[in-house]
Write a structure and sequence with these properties.
Length: 319
């Protein structure tokens, strides 16, 4: 078949298609060989990654959750379901797409910029973790004005000082629950005695309803420890609840608040606190930050069955 004549004015769509089809196949080969070849270099595997901080606004406050550490543990039922049967524990794990034999724990202090002070809630396991998280978020430890200790377990007070006693927050004042401090002062606990007790003269003791700063109010949440405190944060009509260790796992402790947690010192009271405080959060549709929730540790609660379902926050707090 002769190649169509392509004189000016005669190039119709039909003639163009016919001309393209009639071109020898060899004319396409140089183009193919000029294309970049697929990359075949193997990149080094780097392992899972986790963010270090999450910043959002609450009214006139700026809130930052800080990932001060994370670790994987075996045998989660021995921590989060002491009074559950293995069958029930495994079934709940499977229903929520979780392994029944491993869990990842998160340690999440919270920093609040009130506009006049930087207030830090809890300090993680060690100075290195909280310092790294603060630095990644754009702060230094000596900028912290107030350190609030929700309770005295080691993963909350560990970042206060290093093994030599050097303080992490050289310019801060300290706040904690009076009942909590009084219990541990008599307990003979090494972590408390070395990291918290030396701060007694600089520490303000609170009871239920006590105020850390304007808009930050203590809520008694006893059970996990004798004077464990949660906190209500409120600014310009917006509020959230810091639950600290009221709830220790986003499935096992939320969906089954009656399941006993190994680290709850008064297990019956801790379960009652979970149901009352979480019930209030769900009923009032408040956001909450849980110290051991999956990072960024921020979400909402929906009452469901005998417990609650976590609704993770997405963009609600960053609009």
């Amino acid at each position: 078949m002769p190649t169509p004549s392509l004189t000016p004015g005669s190039l119709t769509r039909r003639s163009a298609l016919m001309a393209a089809a009639a071109l020898p196949l060899a004319t396409a080969l140089p183009l193919a060989t000029a294309l970049p070849r697929p990359a075949r270099a193997a990149a080094e595997k780097m392992g899972p990654s986790l963010p270090t901080h999450h910043r959002f606004t609450l009214g006139g406050f700026e809130v930052v959750t800080l990932l001060a550490g994370s670790r994987v543990s075996d045998k989660p039922q021995e921590t989060f379901g002491l009074n559950a049967s293995p069958e029930d524990f495994a079934a709940l794990a499977e229903a929520n797409f979780l392994p029944a034999d491993q869990t990842r724990n998160f340690f999440t202090p919270t920093l609040i910029n009130t506009g006049s002070e930087l207030v830090l809630f809890d300090t993680g396991l060690a100075p290195e973790g909280i310092t790294a998280a603060l630095t990644a978020a754009g702060y230094s430890p000596d900028q912290v004005d107030v350190v609030v200790l929700t309770h005295m377990h080691g993963d909350h007070i560990g970042g206060l000082a290093n093994d030599s006693g050097a303080r992490s927050f050289a310019k801060a004042r300290y706040v904690t629950g009076a009942a909590e401090f009084d219990h541990w002062a008599k307990a003979g606990n090494e972590g408390f005695d070395t990291k918290v007790k030396p701060l007694a003269a600089e520490t303000t003791m609170l009871a239920e309803g006590g105020t850390v700063a304007s808009g930050i109010t203590a809520l008694a949440a006893f059970g996990h420890s004798p004077g464990h405190m949660a906190y209500r944060i409120e600014s310009e009509g917006k509020a959230l609840i810091l639950t600290a260790d009221t709830v220790n796992h986003y499935v096992f402790s939320l969906q089954r608040p009656d399941w006993e947690v190994r680290f709850d010192m008064d297990k019956a009271q801790a379960a009652a606190t979970r149901k009352s405080l979480l019930g209030m959060i769900a009923a009032d549709r408040l956001p909450f930050i849980g110290y051991h929730m999956p990072f960024p540790a921020l979400g909402y609660l929906e009452a469901q069955g005998e417990g609650f379902r976590l609704v993770p926050a997405s963009y609600q707090m960053t609009l």
